[in-house]
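seq as requested:
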Amino acid sequence: MSGGSWTHLAARPLVRPMIGTWIRPNHLTALRLLSGLAACACFAIGSRQADWWGGGMWLVSAFLDRADGELARMGNLGSKAGHIFDYWVDNIINALFFIAAGIGLRGGWLGHWAMPLGLLAGASLFLCGLFSEWLELRSPPDTRAYSGKWGFDPDDALYLMGPLAWLGWLGPIVIGAAAGATAIMLLTGLRLMRLIRTPAQV
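struct tokens:
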């Protein structure tokens, strides 16, 4: 889809009034960090009320993840330092979501498996983000490690985490992420290794 995913398009009308003001993309990234940490703190508590608050704050954080980039592009405010800040915030917050969810689920039906599964999912997602960034840096310009379809990016799935927390489905999500994120991390790592070795074989 030209011009970004549906979530990027949804952010544009809301960030357009910020162009020409004192607000900068890094301000939105900082809010993304704070709201994401607050959401993760709620998920780590593990109560139904905390999950409701966490789900709401997670949606705010996910929206700000799109808004900072759109403000940078639309306002011609992009910078290398801003990209690095945004990249690390996204990687850390997305990984912490699963770690926090695992902590919060420790008293539920997953029992002593909850925290190791959450840690596995979070660590795998973090490494997947690292491998994807390194893969894109070593590839031709505008290459994406994983491209979306039908107007959706792969990381748009993170928007679902808020509603799923409201539904009480964090347990299945952590189990699925522990398997799925680990598989994707390994595949991305293999792609990166293959790309690194290719020049030496030419």
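The chain has one domain: 6-201.
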